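Give me the fold.
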Amino acid sequence: MTEKMLVVDDEPDLESLIRQRFRRKIRNGEYDFVFAQNGLEALARILEHKDIGVILSDINMPEMDGLTLLAKLNELKNPAMRTVIVSAYGDMDNIRTAMNRGAYDFVTKPVDFNDLERTIEKTIAELQNIRTAVREHDRLMAIQYDLDTARSIQFGILPKKFPPFPDRNEFEIFAAMEPAKEVGGDLYDFFLLDSERVGLVIGDVSGKGVPAAIFMAVSRTLMRATALKGLAPEECLTYVNSLLYQESVSSMFVTMFYGILNYKTGWLTYANGGHCLPYIVSKSGELRILESTGMVLGLMDKRQYGSYAIRLNPGDTCFAYSDGVTEALNVEEQLYSEERLEQFLREKRSLDTTSLVRECFADVHHFMKDAEQADDITVLGVRFNER
């Protein structure tokens, strides 16, 4: 890479001296010099040559002196530009002023070209560090933009309109997901299967960040497409597991609960692939934990999943969650735990589904206080209403 430098000085023979001294580097394409006789000409050269990095400037010049030029250069706010002052040794007051105004270094006249060459090399090394930092910053900004876009896409595929089925009063449903990073691996979903049944999904992908988010989107899409075929919960998990196993990389997997609630009768049929076992919360505060039915999805092929069925009484709530709830840590590294969650559910059993889910998030964050969130937090609640 050729380093382009601007020399600003009104001495007529300086240009020839510079070109003679650095002729080898100029010939090898290492250095390229541009010349100006005062500050005004220097600003014009900078506009012409956007790649100027090093400026060697005198202080005392006609039309615009070096100190004024420094002030103008500061207005450009170009981090990849450094100015070296070249002025008489007796002009130390102005040199000091120049350094205070942002000059990187100085060389005194009469010029010692060995000293000038070392100063130029040091300045170029500084610029290379700055350029590397700027490129890294730009790269990180691009990554951040991509993450923000991925976050928008991820949240866009999750249901976010509540109530989702305003013409259905036989049940109420609410869900929320809060990723630990810009994007997460948790998922939830729900959809009407027919005039009597609603499908309920919650899952948690292994890992964090973008890979988990991509696997989450694939898992959610496959699960919804399979469930809408009308298959039983255990058949859905068996089929989706087979598909994920074929596509999984780096041994990624997903825990997943899929339930079908008949909101006419209250029967909940479900299959569970290694996910946290949901609770059934009664109006009296009694808690029932659903049965476990199989292992995680995507890790082993040809797995069979069983199913269970449980009848909800009017007013019962099915409360499903990810392990980001129970495994949340506070500053003392204590777990939120299943016991605390069960206590919370008993105390808050009379809340509507929306309030129950939101207050669960609030209780987890109150428990964590200043501790960093280490895992995605997802909660889905559905209540079977009085008819």
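The mean pLDDT is 91.
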